[in-house]
Every structure is written in C-alpha cells, then in structure tokens.
Amino acid sequence: MGNPLQLKSLNHISLVCRSLEKSIGFYQNVLGFVPIRRPGSFDFEGAWLFNYGIGIHLLQAEDPHQMPAASGINPKDNHISFQCESMGTVEKKLEEMEIEYVKSRVEEGGIYVDQIFFHDPDGSMIEVCNCNILPVVPLDGDTPALQCSRMNCNLEHHVQQPQHPASISL
After folding, report:
1. Active-site residue numbers?
2. Is residue 19 part of a domain?
3. Of 83, 121, 125, 167, which residue is least crowded by CB atoms under 10 Å?
C-alpha cells in the first residue's frame, strides 16, 4: 500500500469566496464548522473554520466579480463530501433553510448509498452522504480492504466476494 510522502490525514481545503461573511455564515450555520484563529501574519482576508477533523480555509476573492457563476447542481462536478448520521434530517434541514439540492442513489452489490448535493454561496459543490456503508476495496486483490466509519478507517481481511448489507459491520 505505500505512503511515499508519509501522509497522515486530510488537513484542510481552501475555497475562494465572493463574500467572506456569507461563506462563514454558510459553513457555520449549514455545515456546523466553527471559526478558529488564523495566523495574523497573512496579508489577505480570509477565515479558518474547523470541525469533523478537517479545516476549511476561506479566502476572500481579490475580484469577486471575476468568479464564475454557479451553474446547475451536477453530482459529477468537483465537490467535497461529508458523511452524515441521517439523510432524512439533512433533507429536512435543507428544505427548512430553502437550499436547493439534488438527490441521488448509488447501488453496488446490493448496498445502496444515498447522496444529496447542493452549493455553498460561491457555487462550490457540497455532498452529504451515507457512504460509510460501502467497503473500501483496493483494486489490488492482495491488499486488505478498508472499512471506514465516521471516526476511522480500519484494515480488514479482503473478501473476494461482494459484501451484502447484512454482513457489513459499522
């Protein structure tokens, strides 16, 4: 499995914003991120937010009018994805907040994964899913499968046959 750069985890993603204030509000109020201290030596506007073990660094666009306009919600576009506890709760909250979204369902070996896609104020795509029910199976048959949960990923013995929902431990 190799780790040539000795990586440990995802630290943060950076997103350029039209309005720092609107984006901070979205990531706080919709996704539950908390603003954290950012180094004072930066000579540009921005904000750091943190939750779920990752950071989101928001950067104020130098020219907000030059940013591309958001197009329709396309699940095949670049996006960041978050695992959730309840897809029903996510859908209900998005409706309450009047945030437009698209639902999708993926099936693999009898396992069904639900996805909800929507945009942040700047058109960056967000996905919320219950993807942790899918085993992470390396293409190399000699490598152990990874079973991921919200909290961690564990190496498990790779089973050549597809797993069924009843046999997947979370």
Report:
1. 127
2. yes
3. 167
What's the CA gap between 1 and 6, in Å, rounded?
12
The contacts of residue 29 (CB under 8 Å, 6+ apart) are none
**Within the chain, where are the H helices?**
20-29, 87-96
Q: How many domains does the chain have?
A: 1
141 in any annotated domain: no
6 Cβ neighbours under 8 A, 6+ residues apart: none
Is-contact 120 15, C-beta < 8 A? Answer: yes
Q: Are strands 12-17 and 145-148 parallel, antiparallel or unpaired?
A: unpaired
Chain segment 121-166, per-residue pLDDT in tens: 999 999 999 999 988 888 876 665 555 544 444 443 333 333 333 3
Structure tokens at 154: 């564990």
Provide the whole-model pTM.
0.80
Q: Write the CATH number for 30.
A: 3.10.180.10
Q: Which tokens is 135 given?
A: 């085993």
Residue 71's nearest CA partner among 126, 124, 14 is 124
